[in-house]
Amino acid sequence: MQSLGMVIVVPFLLAFCSMIYELVLAQYISLYFGGTVFNFTLTIGVFLASMGLGALWSARVARDQIYPVLEKVELGLCGLGLASPLLTSVLGSLSLTSSSPLFTQVLFGLCYGLVVMIGILSGYEIPLLLGLFDNAKKKMTVLSLDYFGSFIAALCYPLLFVPHLGLVQTSLLVSFLNLLVALWIGYRFNKRYVLISAELALIAIVLVLMVQSFWLENWLRGWLYL
Amino acid sequence: MNSKKFYLLITFCVAFCSLSYELLIARTLGSLTGDIVTSQSWTIGFYIAALGFGAMTFHLWENVKQETRVLFYNTEILLSLLGLLAVPIILLMKMWFEYKAIFIGQPHAFILCAQLMTFAVGYFSGFEIPLLLKLSQSDEKSESYVIGYHYFGSMVGAITAAYFFQPHFAAVSIGVFIASGNLLLSAIFLTKKLKPVVFYVVFSGVFVAGAFSAFKIDQKHAEITYFVTSPSLYAKSFQELGELAHQYVKVDRHLSPYQTIDIVEKTAIELSDEEGARAGVPQLTLFNRLYINSQLQVSLNYQDVYHETFAHVPINLSQKTPKKILILGGGDGILAFELAKYESVDITLVELDEVILNLAQTHPLLLTMNHSVFSKESVQVRVADAFSFMLKNRQKYDAIYADFPLPRDDELMRLFSLEFYQALRRALVDDGFLVVDTPGQGEGHIESRIADSLLSGGFENVYLYGGVARFALASVKSLDISREATAQNMGAESKKYFAPPTRHVSTGHPISLFRPGGR
To answer: Which of B455, B459, B462 is nearest to B509 (CA)?
Structure first.
């Protein structure tokens, strides 16, 4: 069970979530700064490079530290995934009303700071997951499911998420999935009750926000008219 | 340069090229279908999946080819060919599907078919890292460097595409340029001869022919796009279609960072009666037209009717001549010309694209249509994004005209969103009005959704009216739509085609930035 979860479900879900975070962020930045093709192009490049950076860094984690680090990385990703629409809205609305091109560029750069952070954490996960196994076949399965997760996310995003859920609910749903993974890792392998409590609290908040997503959208809309 | 640095440089360059090909495919699909988000998402998804698949299966090829250097060299040659031909092949696919009437109105199906090219590029790009790792015979530390440089190359590729290539060059030209660079790189890599000289001569010939055909296909695609809507009725074969289009259509293309502006000259097709009867089609009369991103903006034969209906009907209905008018979009200047007919009006025109503004002031066809309106003192031009302009705006206007290309892509959708209309409402005086051009009822209920967005954006009354095109008129105060709507400034043709306004009742599906698909 442990093996099935860590080899198949977790790599798939983590790659799935990361890809959706990236696409949502690209679309949010396009909404506020304009230029959909430009921002998707830039986001893809910056995201890939940040993933590479994250992957290079995480190779230093010792084996017995993998589960605790992975749980924290997942919590960080959920936090960023939840906060990035809000932060992008704040930065974007400031830029729309700013008359200084330099200030607009700084705000734009800060939005890409979010892409970089999500990218680094997403890249950080893969070597951690690979480090859990010695068996080459299992490593290969983990890697394949990682690619497959990104692929399915990219397919689903324009087909299911954008038309049926919209940007706000998509962010919430993906953060929810990511939190479930963090909770499972925490409960099964780490048993750090502070982290588990934080995850449960975040899950509760996400569920409430999902139910109240229309209110949340109106609130974000309010940021457009600072 | 020592061999380690050499391999890192090569790694950087091949990553640059590979991601550039992916971005090029995504951009081309976005501009062909208008569905930018799907094109970008699916293309990156297929590319990443193919990269992974390539990296996992490259050893199968390795068994066939003995030397790693040869496999790397062949991979790069193949990738440069794929990069060169990806866009032309996609354009050919599009033309062929249109000719055969396959996947008409199904952008997703077309984007999916075109992923064959993404998969090919991604699959062979997936060979690069494992091959370079083997070639550089690196220890664990320099292995990280190879991987790091690969990611870094991809990022620089994306930044260059976003800031340099995409805003200034056509997709085919970018493909030819990057593929040539990729090929050159393979040649530099090849420090000793691996194949007979004949191979290089033949291959160079193939490459040059490929580049030449790429430009040819791009031109053909533009001509066929503007030829007729049901090409199979007019041409017996795909080849004949190309010939006919070339004979009757002349495309004058101008690229701007925001859009592709095509001024298209067409001549009438003179089918003899016998030919016409055989083809079962009426004689065609074709006119000079202005297209933005392949979408018809203005046609010389009905521009009066379109702009008269757009400009004057709301003024006739509201029975008050606005003094302060804001035009958003409309860089061709024709709407401004119509509105400048009123005395003592003060018109501000906000246009994003300087290229269209320059064309409107220099191109003979556009000058004929807008009567050099930009030289009038009553017309002020501001170069700005309409969304951003409206959010910063603190002025009030008597009338706002939103003259944008129809929302057939994600980029334009935000200018038809309830959030945008909220900003427009705040900029209007209480007895003012807003007019928006809409695609009509035929296109996926977009007209009704635009009207819903106007209602959600704070306008209490929305009326839909038409002529040769459809418009939505929004106001806070209710208007008496039984009034004579064509009383002043409307020509006989405009009156003839006029369809009176009807009041719109909300269907509850506004376009929102946060829910592009409706709720």
So the answer is: B455
CA dist A41 and B24 (Å) reads 9
> pLDDT for A81-107, tens place per residue?
999 988 998 898 888 878 788 999 999
The secondary element (H helix, E strand) that includes residue A98 is: none
* Dist CA B147 CA B373 (whole Å): 57
Answer whether B380's CB lies under 8 Å from B347's CB: yes
Reading the block at residue B140, the tokens are 């664990």
Longest dimension (CA), chain A: 58
Q: Which of B29, B36, B48, B19 is nearest to B111 (CA)?
A: B29
Mean pLDDT of chain B, nearest integer: 86
Residue B422, CB-side half-sphere exposure with 13 Å CA sphere: 16
- CA dist B135 and B7 (Å) reads 8
* DSSP annotation of A64: G
Q: Distance between CA atoms of B408 and B387, rounded to whole angstroms?
A: 17
- Asked if the Cβ–Cβ distance from A155 to B41 is below 8 Å, we say yes
- ipTM reported for the complex, 2 dp: 0.91
Would you tell me which residues 75-134 of chain A have a C-beta closer than 8 angstroms to some C-beta of chain B? Answer: 93, 96-97, 99
State whether B23 and A166 contact (CB < 8 Å).
no
Q: For residue B205, give Cα distances in angstroms to A172, B78, B200, B211, B295.
A: 54, 15, 8, 10, 37
